[in-house]
Specification:
Layout lengths: L2 H13 L4 H10 L7 H11 L9 H32 L7 E2 H24 L7 H4 L6 H5 L4 H7 L6 H33 L4 E2 L8 H11 L14 H6 L11 H5 L1 H4 L2 H38 L3 H9 L34 E5 L3 H10 L7 E4 L5 H10 L4 E4 L7 H5 L1
Parallel strand pairs: 1-2, 3-4, 3-5
Helix pairs in contact: 1-4, 2-15, 2-16, 4-9, 5-9, 5-14, 9-14
Length: 410
């Protein structure tokens, strides 16, 4: 069950012309999925998929969504790469302030992921501000730039707001991941190709010991496994930078070779906060999207009526009093049944398909283990095979306006 299945069922329900009898016959022939509405809808869709017109709406929508998402992912990666290069740019006179890069790879992701969690809780709302401020929401605007034919195919598509919100949430996580990978690539590339001197500077009154305690708290996911990726108190003291004058302190210059060790902490911080946590949120959004698709199946126009026709017996009406039956004085038949038994060993239908026979038997409150179509377009060999299988008490249905008396005798 995925978005394509949802769109295929949407298309089928828009064009469906099946009768209640045909739907009831389908329900009786698929007893394994009884009382499982989603499975029933999927089974019905698979059996009637051949009715879908090409090109499929699901293929057009998926292709469009993939193209737009791929474009946004590429843009996000480039922006992340350029942002990282800008934050790590080093002119040789002033060190790179790690506070800026930490803010981009730790605090900004934590803030946006918190907003995402709130947006998941508000995904049921049609007007969810937290969803609509997401960059992925503007995919709809990019659709206007597509060729006219594609717009014509998709403009009448009505997607459940719950499903649309979860699509935006999931795509937003992919875009954010691409941006974070751009930052990580920029960090690794700059460290590998340049001799960067990192430092930290803030107007707030923060001691090296206090800053070390703060960084140790941030590094709790990896500090026990990779202690060398946590800045020491000595490194923090040596890399504290004050903007007084145009020259660096002699102590910082003498320890310039050690200032580059900050990249290990920055790399692990980017990997954990901006990528791993975001990937976990992506997995959560994938689960949410699947649940939204499942709920949206039942909200499709015509889905409830289809399930009702599948699962509810067909009710027929008749006169309260039996009409007088004309009978010849000398009847050719020695026994005339005025009512049907509750069960038969075999039910046959003259030019009546097996699916309709099951519905007719149910409406007549008749139980039989086997149903066969005879006569009509059947060959003599096929009828002979049914004759050999016919034992016990047999019920034969024929069309009242076309009784095949002589055919049956033959």
């Amino acid at each position: 069950m995925n978005l394509r299945s949802y769109l295929d069922l949407y298309s089928l329900l828009q064009e469906d012309t099946s009768t209640p009898e045909e739907r009831r016959a389908f329900g009786l022939s698929h007893v394994t999925v009884k009382d499982k509405p989603i499975e029933q809808l999927l089974a019905w869709m698979e059996e009637h998929r051949y009715q879908l017109k090409k090109p499929l709406l699901s293929e057009a929508f998926s292709s469009t969504l993939y193209s737009v998402s791929l474009t946004l992912v590429a843009i996000a990666f480039v922006l992340g790469l350029l942002s990282g290069i800008g934050l790590l740019s080093y002119n040789g006179h002033e060190p790179v302030n790690v506070i800026y890069f930490m803010s981009m790879v730790i605090f900004v992701p934590l803030f946006t992921m918190t907003l995402t969690l709130f947006s998941m809780l508000r995904a049921n709302s049609v007007q969810s501000l937290l969803v609509h401020i997401s960059p992925a929401f503007w995919m709809e605007r990019l659709l206007q730039l597509l060729p006219h034919k594609t717009q014509e195919d998709l403009k009448n598509l009505k997607v459940n707001p719950l499903l649309a919100n979860w699509i935006v949430i999931k795509r937003s996580q992919v875009i954010a991941l691409a941006f974070s990978f751009g930052l990580l690539c920029a960090l690794l590339g700059m460290v590998a190709t340049k001799d960067i001197a990192f430092a930290w500077s803030t107007t707030l009154h923060v001691t090296p010991e206090g800053f070390h305690s703060f960084l140790s708290t941030l590094a709790f996911p990896w500090r026990d496994f990779f202690p060398w990726a946590v800045p020491s108190v000595e490194l923090i003291e040596q890399s504290q930078y004050f903007r007084l004058g145009d020259k660096l302190s002699e102590e910082m210059v003498s320890n310039a070779s050690k200032l580059g060790e900050w990249w290990k902490f920055l790399a692990f911080a980017t990997l954990f906060y901006a990528i791993i946590l975001r990937f976990l949120l992506y997995l959560l959004s994938s689960v949410g999207l699947k649940r939204a698709i499942r709920r949206s199946f039942l909200s499709l126009e015509g889905a409830k009526k289809l399930l009702s026709d599948m699962n509810e017996p067909i009710i027929s009406t008749h006169a309260k009093q039996n009409e007088a039956v004309f009978r010849q004085t000398e009847s050719l038949y020695s026994n005339v049944a005025d009512s049907l038994d509750a069960s038969y060993d075999l039910v046959l239908g003259w030019a009546i398909p097996k699916e309709q026979l099951t519905v007719i038997s149910e409406s007549m409150k008749v139980i039989a283990p086997r149903h066969y179509e005879v006569g009509g377009a059947n060959t003599l060999e096929e009828d002979n095979e049914v004759i050999h299988l016919s034992h016990g008490e047999i019920l034969l249905f024929v069309k009242a306006w076309e009784p095949p008396t002589m055919d049956f005798i033959d």
